Amino acid sequence: MDFDFTSDQEMLRKSVAEFLKKECPYERVKEIEDTEEGYDPKLWKKMARLEWMGIYFPEEYGGFEDPLMNLCLIMEEMGKMAYVSPYFSTVVQCGILVMEGGNKKQKKDILSKIIKGKLIMALARYEEDASHDPSFIQMPATVSGDGYTLNGTKLFVGDANIADKIIVAARTDKGVTLFLVDAKAEGITIKKRKSIAKDNTCDVILNNVTVSKDDMLGKPGQGEALLNSMTQKATVAKVAEMIGGCEAAILMTAEYAKGRVQYKTPIAAFQAIQHFMSDMKLGYDSCLNFYYKVAWMVDEGVECSKDISALKGRMNEVYNFIGDRGVQIHGGIGTTREFNIALFFRRAKAFEFMMGDSDYHYEKVAEALGM
Amino acid sequence: MDFKLTKEEQELKEYYEDFFREAIKKAPAIFSHGGGFEAIYSDDEGFAFHQKMAKIMGEKGMLSLPWPKELGGADASIMHQLIFNEAREVSRCPGFDFIGCGMFAPSLLVFANDDQKARLLPPIAKGEVQYCQGWSEPDAGSDLASLQTAAVRDGDEWIINGQKVWTTAAHRSDCMFILVRTDPNSSGSRGLSVFHLDMKTPGIEVRPLYYMNGSHVYNEVFLKDVRVLHKDLIGDEGSGWQVTMATMNFERSGMGFFSTGRKVMERIIQYVKTTKRNGKLLSENAAIRKEIGKIYAGLEAGTMMAFRVGCTQASGDMMAAASVASESKVFGTEFSKHIFDFATKVLGLYGMIEEGDATSLLNVVEEYQSAPGLTIAGGSNEVQRCIISWMAPLNMPRWKLMDPAALKR
Ligand SMILES: Cc1cc2nc3c(=O)[nH]c(=O)nc-3n(C[C@H](O)[C@H](O)[C@H](O)COP(=O)(O)OP(=O)(O)OC[C@H]3O[C@@H](n4cnc5c(N)ncnc54)[C@H](O)[C@@H]3O)c2cc1C
Fold first, then answer.
1. Is B220 helix (H, G, I), strand (E, B) or coil?
2. Ligand 1 pocket mutation pick from B143, B376, B381 by most atoms within 8 angstroms of CB
3. Which of A36, B210, B236, B261 is most buried when burial is the number of CB atoms within 10 A of its CB?
4. C-beta neighbour count of B350 within 10 angstroms
């Protein structure tokens, strides 16, 4: 058993960390949060030049075919800096869907553009009932002429407002099917919602939107399987981002506690504070080592859906605990926009629901244990 | 990053799992109630089985795995020890004296002289001797280094006077390794020494310290003019603190808490799948399903944390290992408490019955009661939390001390 990274992985981590620290400190993150686009197009281009986009994609399409672990390292570093960009929606969710479900032409076309930073994508899967399980997707895709017509409302769609293309999950007579839709296509209305993470969470309303057969991703009825397979990897990647957030929140809070003096004593010397800090660290470590193992299992091709669910279920609780204690230890100043700890408090809540909340995941574990 | 067991490790795992699975089948009935300290030390039949298993395991070299080959050990890697301990704890098979094999042997390997090694190690390895640990005193609990039991030199001998408390298994033990103050002018962790003590030495009186449920596992040990030979001083005079802290090359990941927990989880799942309450199978209860999911997650997370301790230890980074080991102890003991508490809740009214057929699948009431000891013994979880916060990467300052007299004024 070996918990160490290769020197290449260490270098990757370091370069991502240095770039984000220099180019997008927390002050800048908050500025970006307040913009309508919710991302920095210049940084997006630079990220592409640094070759972050193609890390997990096949060489054939210009990628590097690195393990998921390497993509997770990038996500961890983004999590530490509370970085905002369409990386998760474009590269992780849609990129993996195209990689696993697309035909040669689609892969060549889409993956190469993503890799160059020339295409932003969004995944429209959730509907009004907010079910995470794709088998509950209801929106109809009806056959019309040579293609399909899509009608309905998709919710909680990350980055739809800046996307060039949207992958829409809809139901044909064969079951859930994925479609590649031009974000500017006629009949599409996109509304950005205010969210706790101040990210690009959008409603996407489709009104008689027509798509041709060629824009189907995978086969009719293959949508559920594709979504499930992608979701496994994307869940681990989201956990990586959460782990990064936890680490940053813990260190930031420890530093603050050592500097803040009350009763002529650094508050870090008070046991109540020490015990919260050690509980935060303990929660973090319990997820960290488990997450490494799960990422490794995915890369080894070992069946691990039960463990992915267990990990996300626990990660949700730990990140929210750390966010909450982090703010508490900062005292009043921790609740302000000016201080950075609340960046993590807010993200912890949003990420709790992304890729499944704890109720959903623990139920899956119970099922897998034969209950 | 690699989490595969090597072929050799996989074989060891299967070997130990098979061994313990078979061995525990022959255990007396009391072990079906979990097999904690109570089964081993409070029950004659239970203790006889423990001793029998100790001899069998001794013959197979299982009690001295980490020891160097020239002293009869197997030079087993940390991973090997982890695999052994995991299999043993999952089965809850007795026979491994965690005090003699787990705590005293490491000190002997580092600090004993050749004569002591030759005299004291073989009986431990063969499973012929039961040890108890004489550290805590009525006024020296968490602050162990404040202990007062004293040894005074008298020619070739030392004379010990004082009292130890909480001494697990003292009434079953052949020997004690005792920490005493040999420099009367010293305070704190200086001036302490460790002796090897035969429990039959005149002047030793063992009194039961009954646990809350009335079982006899723990003891008070009174020492009045107890004479011990100078050749039984382990390490240099005054080096007692270092001697007691020696854990070199011994696995201390806390894996056992998670292995035990896994076993309990399996029993709970079996129970809820076969038990109806209010007309419905318990396994259909959403709250129970959620809790099982959560417990599985905690156990997997804890197991990986324990492996992390082991791997960090093996890498030689002892400070980092110590920090994660403290986390693993806190997490593991509190998680154990939580699982046992959940198990009693699953049992409903049966959760207050200590024995009986109806609960035989899930008799956890004894373990529920022993669980609070876990978070106190071995360095209380409050103290562990302070230690975690003092170490990297948190590096928080130590707290200020206060004169107790100030409260009394
Ligand atoms: C089941 C069991 C088995 C044991 N077996 C043995 C044995 O075989 N041999 C042996 O020598 N000893 C044994 N012990 C004793 C054990 O080591 C002590 O109980 C332990 O060190 C705690 O000491 P104490 O009980 O005196 O509690 P105290 O030290 O008095 O602590 C009381 C409370 O105060 C808290 N506290 C103490 N100091 C601090 C601090 N600095 N900061 C915050 N909180 C603090 C503790 O966490 C605890 O909650 C055993 C104990 C138990 C419960």
1. strand
2. B376
3. B261
4. 16
Do the Cβ atoms of A358 and B294 come within 8 Å?
Answer: yes
User: What pLDDT shows up at residue A230?
Assistant: 98
Residue B125: burial class (beta carbons within 10 Å; 0-12, 13-18, 19+) = buried
Task: For residue A146, give both structure tokens.
Answer: 């040579």
- Contact of B400 with chain A, judged by CB distance below 8 Å, is answered with yes
Domains and CATH numbers, chain B: 7-96 (no CATH), 132-239 (2.40.110.10), 252-390 (1.20.140.10)
List pLDDT tens digits, range A176-234: 999 999 999 999 999 999 999 999 999 999 999 999 999 999 999 999 999 999 999 99
Of the pLDDT bands very low, low, confident and very high (cuts 50, 70, 90), residue B357 is: low
Architecture (CATH level 2) of domain A122-219: Beta Barrel (2.40)
Is the alpha carbon torsion for A153, A157, A161, A167 positive or negative? negative
Annotation: CATH topology of A7-119: Butyryl-Coa Dehydrogenase, subunit A; domain 1 (1.10.540)
CB-facing half-sphere around the CA of A93: CA atoms within 13 A: 26
Q: What percent of chain B has pLDDT over 90?
A: 83
* Minimal Cβ distance to A277: which of B300, B307, B389: B389
Task: Tell me the pLDDT band of B318, cut-offs 50, 70 and 90.
Answer: confident
Kindly indicate whether the ipTM for this predicted assembly is greater than 0.90, answering yes or no. yes
Interface test with A, best of B304, B338, B384 (most A CBs within 10 A): B304
Q: Which CATH class is domain A224-368?
A: mainly alpha
Domain residue ranges of chain A, discontinuous segments joined by +? 7-119, 122-219, 224-368
User: How far does residue B376's CA lie from ligand 1's centre (Å)?
Assistant: 5
Confidence class for position B364, pLDDT limits 50, 70, 90: confident
Strand B131-134 to B175-181 pairing: parallel
H or E segment at A150?
strand A147-158
pLDDT confidence tier of residue B361, bands split at 50, 70 and 90: low
